[in-house]
Amino acid sequence: MRRAKIISTGRYLPPKVVTNKDMEKLVPTSDEWIRERTGIEQRYFVDLKPGEELGVSDLAYEASKIALERAGMQPSDIDLIIFATLSPDYVFPGSGVLLGKNLGIPGVGALDVRNQCSGFIYALSVADAYIRAGIYDHILIAGAEIHSTGLEYNEHGRHVTVLFGDGAGVVILGPSEDEEHGILSTHLHADGRYALELCAINPGSRRVPRIYPEMLTDHSMYPHMNGREVFKHAVTKFPKAIMEAMEANNLTLDDVKLVIPHQANLRISEAVAQRMKLKPGQLYSNIQRYGNTTAASIPIALDEVLEQGMLERDDIVIMAAFGSGFTWASAAIRWS
Q1: Residues 179-195: tens digit of each pLDDT
Q2: Cα 215–53–47 angle (5° rounding)?
Q3: Quick check: is 117 catalytic?
Q4: Average pLDDT, the chain
């Protein structure tokens, strides 16, 4: 049986660092409040002047160049692009075709995934299936977000605004040389009963006119989060998703070298580690430096992990995510 494996990674962060002290100047908050509730110390924002433009496809392009160079590949070696984001360049078309344009590979298919925090693992599952089926050989997955231009910088939005950062992470997948290594399984779930607990409602297609004056004042254009409900579900769904990936492959926690979760909130990650009785260092966290970069958080974290030499051949990695939808997902990988 043919498997898919990750053969290269890359990440790109815009140059502007926004510390919690900087955030104090943007919204009513404090460094102490942010650290205590989220663990975040800083994040990266794009630095746009009036009239300037920059999109998630541009961030993903920079990360893609790094991943391609590390793999010794040319853009023309890519058979398919899968782009995960909740902050696309435009309402339509999707950002995948724009990344393809930037890479100079016209004619290569581009698929966009809109599963927010779980988007990267959803994209990984699609790429895995395509490669297993022999339809494509080399697939580039991009997870990229620009949150900073769509946040609410006032009293109403401050609890959400302090959480997010901008950035991009890319992985390139190819066929594994053997059946024992690569992506072992992926697991996807959703429960739309909680869709409005974490959402940005407008502009949407549910009403006429789509654009109306009250949108500027009713907060519906900005992210809304029921923090208590999200935390309650996250600390139960994360462990379930991780256990599902292990059980599907007859693994125990002793077999797992590293758990890489979506970086939603350090307190959520700590609660998950405590509930699962993970060993110190077994769950990777970098939200302190980046904030929540949604679909980009897992590929950014994976790129850091590899840069630090934390994974070796035969190591088991479990990736897991939970977020808007509600959606949650996991993947098990035997590193090659």
Answers
A1: 899 999 999 999 999 99
A2: 90
A3: yes
A4: 97
